[in-house]
Design brief:
Blueprint lengths: L10 E6 L6 H11 L4 E7 L10 H19 L2 E7 L3 H8 L3 E6 L2 H17 L4 E6 L9 H9 L10 H18 L1
Parallel strand pairs: 1-2, 1-4, 2-3, 4-5
């Protein structure tokens, strides 16, 4: 009897700035990890967004927060910082899929355009949209930073380690500004 053909590992990329990583990001990561053999979480430089955390610290937080997901799903999750063109990074890591999380209709316009551009740059890489779960649809890193800076409670929006680091970073910025 002939051996069945081996399937190529399914490698996907989930990119973002993760500044900070939220429960919404972790929800999408967990759902994406269930669909692939290897998930690369690409932490983008994106200096234009004036990040709260430096690139390496954002990658460190994502690694720490995704260890449990990797253990639970059995999927290899690799966290890598990157700069430059997303499609170039996808090629570099061997991803055939790019996962993008959608929260609301307003996200779709931007994501639709990005998916079209990425497809034009490399038709061999598919963009797959995952809707955030209903409990996480409203969470954004931008709102987490704004609420934390104004003294609001963000404990239900981010995991504990990220919460502690976010509050520390916000306090440090506030003290530096005074």
């Amino acid at each position: 009897m002939a051996e069945p053909p081996t399937l190529e590992s399914k490698v996907a990329l989930y990119p973002g700035t993760f500044d900070p990583v939220t429960n919404g990001h972790l929800d999408v990561i967990a759902r994406a990890a269930a669909l692939v053999d290897r998930l690369v979480v690409g932490v983008a430089m994106n200096a234009g967004k004036n990040p709260l955390f430096p690139l390496e610290e954002r990658a460190e937080l994502v690694r720490a927060e995704t260890d449990a997901i990797a253990a639970r799903t059995g999927t290899e999750i690799v966290v890598m910082p990157f700069t430059g063109l997303l499609i170039g990074f996808a090629r570099q890591v061997g991803a055939k899929m790019i996962f993008r999380g959608l929260r609301a209709v307003t996200d779709f316009d931007y994501e639709f355009q990005m998916a079209g551009m990425n497809h034009r740059l490399d038709p061999g890489v598919e963009t797959v949209f995952l809707m955030a779960s209903e409990t996480n649809q409203f969470i954004s890193s931008r709102f987490v930073k704004e609420i934390a800076a104004l003294g609001g409670d963000v404990s239900t929006f981010v995991p504990p380690l990220t919460l502690a680091r976010t509050l520390h970073r916000v306090r440090s910025r506030k003290e530096a500004a005074e």
